[in-house]
Amino acid sequence: MLRAVFLSFTLLLAGWSVAQHELHADTLSTANDAEVSTVEAIEFNAGQLIMGHIVDEHGWHIAGDLTLPLPIILYDTERGFSVFSSARFEHGHAAYDGYMLHDGKIVAVDASGSIDEAASANIWDISLTKNVVSLFLAVTLMLIVFFSVAKSYKQRAGKAPKGLQSLMEPIILFVRDDVAKGAIGEKKYARFMPYLLTTFFVILFANLLGLIPFFPGGANITGNIAVTFALALITFVIVTVNGNRHYWRHILAMPGVPAWVLIILTPVEIMGMFLKPFVLMIRLFANITAGHIIVMSFFSLIFVFGATSPVAGYGVSVVSLLFTIFMFFLELLVAFIQAYVFTFLAALYIGGAVEESHEHKESIV
Amino acid sequence: MFLVSLVEPSFGLIFWMTLSFGIAFFLLAKYAWKPILSALHEREQSIEDAIGEARKAREEVAAMKAGNEDLLREARAEREMMLKEARDIRDKEIADAKGRAKSEADAMLARAREEIRNEKNAAITEMKNQVGELSIEVAERILREKLGDKAAQQALLDKVMKESDLHLS
Questions:
Q1: What pairing do the DSSP bridges indicate for beta strands A80-85 and A71-76?
Q2: Phi and psi dihedrals of B124, rounded to 5?
Q3: pLDDT tens-digit profile of A113-172?
């Protein structure tokens, strides 16, 4: 609810900046094209800033004109692999080796510099983008943290936890006792613990890394639909592979339901199979993205008001900052909650797939 | 155009995400989750065992205490019984001794009485005999003296009577 209000507020803000931009364009209609373009360049566009932050990029913008170039890795079905630095594109202004950055996507261009749609379809872009590098960072951090935790478990066998170990232990126990045992059941939970723990901590680490506002953090990893898609896909595979006889029977032919109802019910159940991971994907993506948008919007307010008058900018900055800090803490909470929700729902779906038949009657009612 | 790119999953990121998740999964499952979860399990088990053992020990101590009390009570009862027995035996012995002494005394008394009676009878018999003899002697003397003096006869009688007194004693 709160989120929806903020989201619509953000869109309003973006719309307002666009309207202002149009206003400027109108007033300058007598001026020539070159002049219009310079005005556009100076104009602060909150929508563009926010979106630029939310979406993935080739090259990591650190501050001002400082951008960390990242490796571009392309596989062209006709031309094979090509690897080069993202600096070659000069922020989308230059083509390199027949490729060009267009609206954040790599496309193929011909000699004259125009986009070749047919050749673009052959490109498989597996570049190490900002999100990929951030992801590696999160995973590396995770490996370091948990290897050290595992080491302290070995060294301090049978003793009380200490340091990092005691920070992680309650979370691990929470995932085990409240998520896995609760949703899957005492008998079968152990097999899924590695997956649930990995999922929980990957999401948590990525969420927290995304909250750090400066260079090594700040990437909107879990707020990227490709990332949540991959996570949901893995969950879908695990649920489907582990589905037992009862699970498939309930999907394909719900026992105790008349045949004519099955004509409707079975397609719905099959749809539900795909809908579950889809919901997982959307929930995580939307929650994290919305959080980032809100924080960025409050921040942008300063510059939007500052553009009208510096005094208004300074005045708003106090309120904006307070709101941003509030949102930051809220996002900190959301980072944990979303990691929990994703893991818990995944565990529920797994629990439904491996459940024994003792609840037949209940599901028919 | 940005909104489209927001909800359009890019292939590269899916690829890297799946790969890094897979690598993280296998590395963590083998080198982190397994030792951590087994260590947690072991610790919980050992704590549970320790609690169970403590409870057992406590129960044992309680049982021992109860046993001790039973033993004490038994010992006390036994002591009481032994004392009572001893008292009974003593009482009985005293009673026996008293009985025995009394019967012995009775017997002695009876014997003494018998003896006295016998002696008395013997004395009476002897006295009878002596009296008889004396009577005969007296009669003899009287008869003899009758021939003499009457006074002399009387003195004679007195003398004889005196002598018979001596004999009797």
A1: antiparallel
A2: -60, -45
A3: 777 777 788 888 888 888 899 999 999 999 999 999 999 888 887 777 888 888 999 999
A245-252 vs A310-354: helix axis angle to the nearest 10?
A: 110
Q: How many CB atoms lie within 10 A of CB A27?
A: 10
3-state class (DSSP) for residue A81: strand
Contacts of A166 in chain B (CB under 8 A): none
Phi/psi at A80 (5° precision): 80, -160
User: Residue A211 is which amino acid?
Assistant: L
Angstrom CA distances, A253 to A10, A256, A311, stand at 46, 9, 68
CA B80 vs CA A122, B54, B89, B92: distances in Å: 109, 39, 14, 18
CB A266 within 8 A of CB A253: yes
Distance separating alpha carbons of residues A194 and A319, to the nearest angstrom: 44
Structure tokens belonging to residue B85: 């027995």
- Chain B residues within 8 A of A157 when measuring between CB atoms: 39, 42-43
Report d(CA B1, CA B17) in Å as an integer: 24
Query: In chain A, whose CA is at the least distance from the CA of B12?
Result: A126
pLDDT at residue A20 in the model: 43
DSSP symbol at A217: S
| List of chain B residues whose C-beta atoms are within 8 Å of the C-beta of residue A225 | 6-9
Q: Indicate the DSSP class of residue B148.
A: S
Which of A240, A128, A231 lies closest to B24 in space, CA to CA?
A231
Contact between chains at B34 and A194 (C-beta distance less than 8 A): yes
Which residue type does A314 have?
A: Y
CA A102 – CA A220 distance, rounded (Å) = 21
User: A198: which chain B residues are within 8 Å (Cβ-Cβ)?
Assistant: 21, 24-25, 28-29, 33
The model's pTM is 0.71
Sequence-ordered list of residues with C-beta below 8 angstroms from that of A225, at least 6 positions apart, any chain: A281, A285, B6, B7, B8, B9
Please name the residue that has the structure tokens 């900190």.
A332
User: Model confidence over A211-225: pLDDT tens digits?
Assistant: 888 777 778 889 889
CA atoms of B135 and B132, how far apart (whole Å): 5
Q: What are A93's two structure tokens?
A: 């202004």
Q: What's the residue count for chain A?
A: 365
Place of tokens 């691990």: A172
Q: Quick one: DSSP state of residue B122?
A: H
Contact A289, A3 (CB under 8 A): no
Q: How many helices (H) and strands (E) does chain A have?
A: 13, 7
Residue B48 tokens read as 């549970």
A233 contacts B18? CB cut-off 8 A: yes
- The helix (H) or strand (E) run that includes residue A62 is strand A60-63
Residues paired with residue A82 on neighbouring β-strands, in sequence order: A74
Measured CA to CA, the distance from residue A22 to residue B141 in angstroms comes to 203
Please give the single-letter amino acid code of residue B164: S
CB contact under 8 A, B9 and A226: yes
Inter-residue contact A71 to A86 (CB < 8 Å): yes
